[in-house]
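Anyone up for a design puzzle?
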């Protein structure tokens, strides 16, 4: 059974940095691309970044390109999102997703505020 557990969220000041993690289990992690989505209250979940299964191909939403980096450690079955130069508009619940599937974690809250 696929399980995805996000962690690493919290309160950070504008301009600060934060790293999110997603621990994956219940499937062969290295066989799947992965993605990060985020959702603000009352809004639809939107794609932040994705990474193919070998980690060599990545794509980002325009709003985060140049500031966020998605990566993965297939030996640890873990997905990461390094977030730099954070803005208040980045405040959201962040979710990891098995790319192209209906599998989601429960999310981790990121709040960017002074």
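Challenge accepted. My sequence:
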């Amino acid at each position: 059974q696929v399980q995805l557990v996000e962690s690493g969220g919290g309160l950070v000041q504008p301009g600060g940095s934060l790293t999110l993690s997603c621990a994956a289990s219940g499937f062969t992690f290295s066989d799947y691309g992965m993605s990060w989505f985020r959702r603000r209250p009352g809004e639809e979940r939107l794609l932040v970044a994705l990474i193919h299964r070998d980690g060599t191909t990545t794509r980002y939403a325009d709003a985060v390109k140049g500031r966020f980096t998605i990566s993965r450690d297939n030996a640890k079955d873990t997905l990461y999102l390094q977030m730099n130069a954070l803005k208040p508009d980045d405040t959201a619940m962040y979710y990891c997703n098995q790319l192209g599937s209906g599998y989601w974690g429960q999310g981790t809250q990121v709040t960017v505020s002074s």
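A detail worth pointing out: The chain is about 0% helix and 50% strand.
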